[in-house]
Amino acid sequence: MTRQSTEMALPRAEKPKPTRPPLSLRILAGLFMYWFTWAVTTSLDRFHRAWILGTRWLASPWSLKDKAMHHHLIVAGDDHALGMGDTCVPGNLPGCATRLVTLLHERKHMRHQWTALNFGRLGLTTRDWLPSTPAFAARFAPKGYSPEQRQRDAVVLLIGSFDHAAGILPEDTLANAKSTVLALSDMFGFVSVCTIPDWMVDERKFPDAIEAMATVNKGLRVWIEGLEKSGNIALGAEVDRASTDFRLARFYAHSGLHFNKAGYVKMSRDLLLLLESPLRRIEFNEETAFLR
Fold first, then answer.
1. Cα 215 from chain centroid?
2. Is the pLDDT of residue 243 over 60?
3. Are 71 and 154 in contact (CB under 8 A)?
4. Closest CA to 97 of 286, 272, 283, 277
């Protein structure tokens, strides 16, 4: 018998079978990982919210200036106006406000000084921005903010994202938005209304929400198109599904609920093209009145 046949005749040592932890231990481990993930995510979300509110507070002026050749560019609305999902450093307002004013000054077409203001509020609906609410007057007509200064200022409005979740019908959302825009147009020199962003809404899970937002956005477009071109109301950045510019996932935060830095930069550049001429017209009107 050869050496090879001898080796083949020897019994092979069986490999030890892997031992699995008890079922109870696996369940406990799964529950722990679920809790840990939830705790980390919740902590990060709370930290991000506090960071956005803190940077907004640090970068906001203590009082509104009231003087000639000085203007305020106000970005008002819900989470998207506030800048949730953005990554900003202290000294800059989150969202579009600071970026938009910086772009305006870089183009060197603006001759006056423009100051960015962020009037965004977490989770507000169009009902919360109605002219009859105390919050409207407290935000847009505080003490010391003269009507003459407001006519030198402009507003970018981002509202309506949370109406469907709050049970507000599309026709009511559109009516609320119209009331707010008309009131602001009487108070300020120019009002730009953005469409409701809906690319972050899963159409398979929430088809009703997509349909409701599309109805409001369509009505908003039709209404603004029917206004006089010489008026002070115009459509702002189109960030809904009717425009494919914002369909890319790189424009949204990890939560998928808000824009990220790239998304706010993109929105700011779109608004720049739409606001440059109306804001320059505000400056020209003041210069003309000043020369008289």
1. 20
2. yes
3. yes
4. 272
